[in-house]
Amino acid sequence: MDGGQEVRMDAAPYCCSTCDSGEVSGRSLARRKGKTRSLSTSSAGSSSDYRRNQSLHGPSPVTTFGPKACMLQNPHAVMHIQDPASQRLTWNKPPKSVLVIKKIRDASLLQPFKELCMFLTEVKNMIVYVENKVLEDPEISGDENFGAITKKFCTFREDLDDISNRVDFIICLGGDGTLLYASSLFQESVPPVMAFHLGSLGFLTPFKFDTYQSQVTQIIEGNAAIVLRSRLKVRVLKENWEKKARLDDQGIILTNGDVDGGRKSVQHQVLNEVVVDRGPSSYLSNVDLFLDGHLITTVQGDGVIVSTPTGSTAYAVAAGASMIHPNVPAIMITPICPHSLSFRPIVVPAGVELKIMLSRDARNTAWVSFDGRKRQEICHGDSITITTSCFPVPSICFRDPVNDWFESLAQCLHWNVRKKQNYLSSEDEEF
User: Fold this and answer.
1) Between residues 328 and 263, which one has the greater pLDDT?
2) What is the 3-state secondary structure (H, E, C) of the chain?
3) Which of 137, 161, 176, 404 is catalytic?
4) Which residue, among 401, 44, 363, has the nearest Cα to 191 in the 3D structure?
């Protein structure tokens, strides 16, 4: 990471009205007074405070990340649009808690996980949050030497415990999937995420674990650049939900929504993409695509991908889409094997609202998934509404958002790799 601007931890510069009013510090004090190891659900603030504006650039992203982090504002920004290279992290107060996310069932990550947790607890005196299922690994639970460290952990369970206001920043050990999983744990403000490349691809994980101690120390000191990865706010409205409720991929009926007159509404925050496909049916998928209430096309093919700029380098690029830098305010729509030679991927402004529904003459149902998870069936009368979320994922950069992105293109996707053409000398030109 480069040095960049100096960050003072004792008197952070003005970053937002929330920090200015002291709400963040007030909440932090309240939590410390009622500190407990057992987690209970707590409100993370009403999302109605962040209303979607009418700008085609999309809603202004919330720039407070978790209870203590925010973006260091650039006074030279023009029209509130910052140079991506100038986006930097700052802390209102020194971070005290960290969530460590480890790829499950990967033996190669056991030693890095143990080293990191020992460093955070013993050297940095941090409160470490770890998911219950991580500690259920026999290689961890059976390690007597590591047992004294695990007793200091705060544990939680996905979909049952709310840790949104308890974690100051996140460290991911694994591949890109760990960053997607971290995003799914926070339905509103997301703490800064530091991702170590210990998986297979690593497009979203710029840090190498070899020098983790110095890198983590720099993050705790507030010396880091960040990129705000926009997310999609997805609302699935199920018609006559009581009759068509199905089990999700974990065997649990989806309940994070409202029921109104037999219509079930479920919301998701999606970092990569929403995929609507034909599922197990042999028929073409036949879905209508609306933009701000207007029917723009009917997708006939294997399906359609609605992705963020971050997701443009995932499933979308495999389906023929362009790659978009994560700082570009946009939503990409990519058909999957369309039965039309002229149906090309398109990019629409981040401020629009998309709606996907089954066509009236569709021969079969469709299926939808969110970042590859929570797969469910979409029937006639159901609808999927997609907008740009106010709550981005603040991903910590190794250098800066521009250099990191092009480095990932080169190293992970081998973008524009070709044997160079030989130099043509003057003697060769004569022939």
Assistant:
1) 328
2) CCCCCCCCCCCCCCCCHHHHHCHHHHHHHHHHHCCCCCCCCCCCCCHHHCCCCCCCCCCCCCCEECCCEEEECCCCCECCECCHHHCEEEECCCCCEEEEEECCCCHHHHHHHHHHHHHHHHHCCCEEEEEHHHHCCHHHHCCHHHHHHHCCCEEECCCCCCCCCCCCEEEEEECHHHHHHHHHCCCCCCCCEEEEECCCCCCCCCECHHHHHHHHHHHHCCCCEEEEECCEEEEEEECCHHHHCCECCCCCECCCEEEECCEEEEEEEECCEEEEECCCCCCCEEEEEEECCEEEEEEEECEEEEECCHHHHCHHHHCCCCCCCCCCCEEEEEEECCCCCCCCCEEEECCCCEEEEECCCCCCCEEEEECCEEEEEECCCCEEEEEECCCCEEEECCCCHHHHHHHHHHHHCCCCCCCCCCCCCHHHHCC
3) 176
4) 44
**Residue 186, SS3 per DSSP:** coil
**If pLDDT is split at 50, 70 and 90, which confidence band does 275 have?**
very high
Predicted TM-score (pTM) of this structure: 0.79
275 or 428, which is more confident?
A: 275
At residue 169, the pLDDT reads 96
Spatial CB neighbours of 199, under 8 Å, sequence gap ≥ 6: 103, 174, 175, 176, 177, 178, 205
Q: Which two tokens stand for residue 426?
A: 């003057």
pLDDT at 127: 95
From CA 110, how far away is CA 106, in angstroms rounded?
7
Per-residue pLDDT of 119-132, as tens digits, reads 999 999 999 999 99
Based on the residue annotation, tell me whether 302 is a catalytic residue of this protein.
Answer: no
Q: Is the pLDDT of residue 151 over 80?
A: yes
Residue 232, token pair as written in the block: 């999609």
